[in-house]
Amino acid sequence: MIALFEWLGGQGTAFWQDAFAVFLRVGAVVMLFPGFGEQVVPVRFRLSIAVAFTLVVLPVVAERHDLSEIPTLQLVATETFTGLLFGAGLRLMAIALQAAGAIAAQASSLSQLLGGAATEPMPAVGHVFFWGGLALAFATGLHVKAAQYMVLTYDLIAPGAFPSGEMVSSWGLQQVSASFSLAFRLAAPFVLASAVYYLALGAINRAMPQLMVAFVGAPLITGGALVILCFVTPAILTLWLGALDGLLFNPAEPTR
């Protein structure tokens, strides 16, 4: 440990300036990164993750860009904003899972089941999608893809440069559109099954007005939704993982 600190201390001022500049962007990305930036993760742990990613990304960035000529205040402003921008793009992917869970729950009468089991109110289907998606992402090497994503952001926006308003608006609209489009596609099986079910229930009610369709139909839609959840969740999470990988490998173009 002493030898490590002696080596770090002997790297000179340039090393620490470059590390600080990279940490500004990487730390902002980590704070919003799905999995790493969740509220249930302690702040000290998130800070340790940001430092670890900084040590991974720093050699690549220092080789490609000269950070010593950029004023410190300019780095603080530009790198923090850029990190938050790209972190928000990834956070929208997590929101897509939550939105898909909310849509599926509302369509299948599961919205109140275990709705307050986390820091953010979310239906049970949203919990299954969100944490299942994160588990699948980490199992397929999310930490490696995250480091690559952070390096790719420097190819899109150079250190010390503010992204143009046109670029931010265009990229942001694409991300939001892709996120909600993905959410609706993920929840499509529940929405279609619910539509068919309610149409059939309406036809039965017209044919047999004396039948209490509400008492008969409520358990059926809930049970059917649970069956659908068991069968389609693997496909839903695989589709979401493909969209996430598309964004991680190509931050400029979101996968729809």
Summary, kept brief:
By secondary structure, the protein is mainly alpha-helical.
Keyword list:
single chain; 256 residues; mainly alpha; 9 helices; 0% strand
How much beta, percentage-wise? under 5%
The helix content, as a percent range, equals over 70%
The gyration radius over C-alpha positions equals: 23 Å
Q: Roughly what is the average pLDDT, rounded to an integer?
A: 81
What's the number of structural domains?
1
- Morphology: elongated
Could you give a short account of the major beta sheet?
none
List unreliable stretches of 5+ residues.
112-119
- State the order of secondary-structure elements, H for helix, E for strand: HHHHHHHHH
| Individual helix count | 9
Class from helix and strand fractions: mainly alpha
Distance between the termini: 47 Å
Please give the number of β-strands: 0
How would you characterize the overall build of this protein?
The protein has 256 residues and is an all-alpha fold. It has one domain. It is 77% helix and 0% strand. The protein has nine helices and no strands. The chain has helices at 2-9, 13-32, 43-64, 72-108, 124-139, 142-156, 165-186, 188-207, 213-249. It is elongated.
Secondary-structure blueprint of this entry?
Layout: H1 2-9, H2 13-32, H3 43-64, H4 72-108, H5 124-139, H6 142-156, H7 165-186, H8 188-207, H9 213-249
Helix pairs in contact: 2-3, 2-4, 3-6, 4-5, 4-7, 4-8, 4-9, 5-9, 6-9, 8-9
